[in-house]
């Protein structure tokens, strides 16, 4: 296993074991100590691998009982497409205004979301997304430099996802998204021309590559008129 990505290799192996039926749905996984002995790593490394599986919906933690395999055979299809980006979703009718672009050490909250150390460097990106000439989204994005190197304002003004796919030859596989209604911040009121009584639809998204690495954590605040989120649950034919 590669020294700095052992947890990715373990995540990949356990995910394969779940999908192949070695660990059936609803079965309890071995304790972290036993998995650490099996893979010859620390329990912290096992925890990082399990965290990825929890975030991707393969495992659920039950307080006082341990980690159990979820029914991952139920998948979701969403009309709000995290895997292609806003530009593709709106047929290219999206422009980006860069509000902030910097490289910095992450806060503990961001480090936890990206599954990186606080000593590592991340991009912090703030953009306004304009759809059909209407200021519609304020987007806050954090990406690890180690995974997404060479990002410039050119990509920020066009499509970061296209850069990841075409220039870095990386494959975006999945995303974990939470949606909530929120009041606008001072910055959002200024750029989206809102007031204190308005509200926004906010998504928090963790993006994964096909090798299990987290490449992005983003918070996007959408005006309701340009927000369309639809999820369809599809049961496996054998269920």
UniProtKB/TrEMBL annotation:
This protein's record includes keyword Cell membrane: no
HTH gntR-type domain residues: 4-72
A Pfam cross-reference name: UTRA
GO BP terms in the entry: negative regulation of DNA-templated transcription
Keyword annotations: DNA-binding, Repressor, Transcription, Transcription regulation
Domain of life where this protein originates: Bacteria
This protein's record includes keyword ATP-binding: no
Molecular-function annotations in GO: DNA binding; DNA-binding transcription factor activity
InterPro entries assigned: Bact_HTH_transcr_reg, Chorismate_lyase_/UTRA_dom_sf, Tscrpt_reg_HTH_GntR, UTRA, WH-like_DNA-bd_sf, WH_DNA-bd_sf
Coiled coil segments of this chain: none
Protein name: UTRA domain-containing protein
């Amino acid at each position: 296993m590669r020294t700095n990505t052992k947890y990715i290799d373990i995540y990949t192996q356990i995910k394969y074991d779940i999908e192949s039926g070695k660990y059936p749905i609803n079965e309890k996984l071995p304790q972290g100590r036993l998995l650490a002995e099996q893979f010859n790593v620390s329990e912290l490394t096992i925890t990082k691998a399990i965290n990825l599986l929890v975030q991707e919906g393969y495992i659920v933690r039950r307080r006082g009982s341990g980690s159990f395999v979820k029914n991952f055979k139920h998948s979701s299809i969403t009309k709000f497409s995290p895997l292609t980006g806003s530009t593709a979703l709106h047929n290219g009718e999206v422009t980006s205004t860069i509000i902030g672009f910097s490289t910095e050490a992450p806060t503990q909250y961001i480090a936890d979301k990206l599954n990186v150390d606080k000593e590592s460097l991340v991009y912090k990106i703030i953009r306004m997304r304009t759809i059909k000439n209407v200021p519609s989204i304020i987007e806050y994005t954090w990406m690890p430099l180690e995974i997404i190197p060479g990002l410039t304002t050119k990509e920020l003004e066009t499509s970061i996802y296209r850069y990841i796919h075409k220039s870095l030859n990386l494959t975006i596989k999945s995303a974990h998204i939470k949606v909530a209604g929120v009041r606008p911040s001072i910055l959002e009121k200024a750029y989206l021309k809102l007031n204190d009584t308005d509200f926004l639809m906010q998504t928090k998204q963790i993006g994964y590559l096909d090798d299990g690495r987290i490449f992005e954590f983003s918070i996007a605040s959408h005006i309701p008129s340009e927000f369309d989120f639809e999820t369809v649950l599809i049961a496996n034919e054998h269920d």
